[in-house]
């Protein structure tokens, strides 16, 4: 069964005019239920992740500042969010959602988090709409509990997974693969184990060829036993924060390549949603919904 982390807290309201589309976290499950892709039994509601698993990845001093609301104005500004206790609680629920989804992926082959993909959170700070890094926390949870020996992070958001790269820069048990816009945020990029920097306006065929040419041999060489897939849809041509040129169908084929490859190689995969900032919310929902449709089609 496809298990999906979702909480009403994911749609935590932000000030009017804020450019981060929180409403997608409510609309996406509604769309999946409406069209019959999933039923209510597919969803599980995450709780608060135990602090020990958060500070297993993040600096305790940073997490304490986050939970006590004592970040500086500069630190808050870098996150892109107005800091609040409710926002921090939301983030901790997202972390638990990805950890639990990873455990469900071990059981069912694949699992999803409606939110997550917070790849700009570093060991000691938040950036770019990310306070804590669910990708890193979930990977470290698996490794710490000896549920995995080699995790492959496949980050296909339009922005480089700079926080994830920093967290795992000295960890040979996690391989970070980021395929992202060369001239997009963050301007000062970290070094992933494999970075593919893409030119502006790259279209479906060139993008998908690069993905296949890099991902296929990567799996053969690494032999990972778990994949974390950051499948942000800000690669779309319509995205106002991205600079690439993928169509909705191209983005769907991107997800199919990754998910089918995981299935074919019997590698459990946890998918977290990442970014998506197209002006029309329907474009965002359709692109995200395709990931769930493919998961159902390929695995169930």
Automatic annotation (TrEMBL):
Q: Where is the Histone deacetylase domain?
A: 18-288
Q: Which UniProt keywords apply?
A: Hydrolase
Q: Does the entry feature the keyword Hydrolase, yes or no?
A: yes
Signal peptide (UniProt feature, chain positions) = none
Which family, according to the similarity comment? Belongs to the histone deacetylase family.
Q: What's the protein called, per UniProt?
A: Histone deacetylase
Please name the source species: Belliella marina
């Amino acid at each position: 069964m496809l298990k999906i982390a979702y909480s009403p807290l994911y749609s935590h309201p932000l000030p009017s005019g804020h450019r981060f589309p929180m409403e997608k976290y409510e609309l996406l499950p509604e769309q999946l239920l409406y069209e019959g892709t999933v039923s209510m039994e597919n969803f599980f509601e995450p709780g608060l992740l135990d602090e020990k698993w958060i500070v297993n990845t993040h600096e305790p001093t940073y997490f304490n500042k986050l939970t006590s609301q004592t970040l500086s104005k500069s630190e808050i500004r870098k996150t892109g969010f107005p800091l609040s206790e409710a926002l921090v609680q939301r983030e901790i629920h997202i972390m638990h959602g990805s950890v639990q989804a990873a455990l469900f992926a071990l059981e069912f082959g694949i699992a999803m988090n409606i939110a997550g993909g917070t790849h700009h959170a570093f060991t000691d700070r938040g950036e770019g709409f990310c306070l804590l890094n669910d990708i890193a926390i979930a990977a470290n949870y698996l490794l710490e509990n000896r549920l995995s020996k080699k995790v492959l992070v496949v980050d296909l958001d339009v922005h480089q997974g700079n926080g994830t790269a920093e967290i795992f820069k000295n960890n040979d048990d996690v391989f970070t693969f980021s395929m992202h816009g060369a001239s997009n945020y963050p301007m000062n990029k970290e070094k992933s184990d494999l970075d593919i920097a893409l030119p502006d306006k790259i279209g479906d065929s060139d993008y998908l060829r690069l993905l296949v040419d890099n991902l296929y041999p990567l799996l053969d060489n690494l032999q990972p036993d778990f994949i974390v897939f950051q499948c942000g849809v800000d690669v779309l041509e319509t995205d106002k924060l991205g600079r690439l040129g993928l169509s909705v169908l191209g983005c769907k084929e991107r997800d199919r390549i990754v998910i089918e490859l995981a299935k074919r190689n019997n590698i459990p995969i946890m998918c977290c949603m990442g970014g998506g900032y197209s002006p029309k919310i329907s474009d965002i929902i359709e692109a995200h919904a395709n990931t769930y449709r493919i998961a159902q089609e390929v695995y169930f």
